[in-house]
Write a structure and sequence with these properties.
Strand content: under 5%
Largest sheet: none
Order of helices and strands: HHHHHHH
Radius of gyration: 17 Å
Shape: flat
Helix content: over 70%
Distance between the termini: 21 Å
Number of helices: 7
Number of strands: 0
C-alpha cells in the first residue's frame, strides 16, 4: 500500500505539468521535461513507478510469478534515488530537507545491501512478494 500511496502522491505532483501546458499538449510537456533537469529526473521516477503501481495487485503477482515480480519491483531503488535528486534540484535555497531525505534513502539502501551480503547473496534481496491465495 505504501507504494500505491507514493504513486498517488507523485501523480498529483505530476498534474501541474500537464495543466500548465494547456489541454495536455505533449510537445510542450516534452520541451519542459527536456529543458529542466529536475523535471526530467522527476519524470523518470514517475515513469518507473507506473509499472510498479500496475503490477501491485495479487493477480499481477500470480501472472508474473514471485521472482519476476521481485525483479520488476527492484526499480523502486532507482525511483527513490530519482525522487531525492528531483527534490534536491527543485529546492533553490535551503537544501537541508532534501539532504536529510537523501541521507535517509542512502542509509536504507546501505542497510538492504548489508542484509544481502550477510545472507551470503551477491545482491540484497527484495522484500518477498505478498502471498497470493488461489
Amino acid at each position: 500500500m505504501l507504494g500505491l500511496f507514493a504513486f498517488f502522491y507523485v501523480s498529483f505532483t505530476f498534474s501541474p505539468i500537464s495543466d500548465r501546458t494547456s489541454p495536455f499538449n505533449l510537445s510542450a510537456m516534452w520541451k519542459d521535461v527536456a529543458k529542466r533537469p529536475f523535471i526530467t529526473v522527476g519524470f523518470l521516477g514517475f515513469v518507473l513507478l507506473i509499472p510498479l503501481a500496475i503490477t501491485s495487485t495479487a493477480g499481477w503477482i500470480r501472472r508474473l510469478g514471485g521472482k519476476r515480480w521481485q525483479q520488476l519491483h527492484r526499480a523502486i531503488y532507482v525511483t527513490a534515488v530519482c525522487g531525492v535528486i528531483h527534490y534536491y534540484w527543485l529546492v533553490k535555497s535551503d537544501v537541508r530537507k532534501p539532504l536529510f531525505y537523501g541521507a535517509l534513502v542512502g542509509i536504507l539502501l546501505l542497510w538492504r545491501w548489508a542484509i544481502g551480503f550477510s545472507n551470503g547473496e551477491a545482491r540484497p534481496p527484495c522484500a518477498s512478494p505478498p502471498q497470493v491465495s488461489q
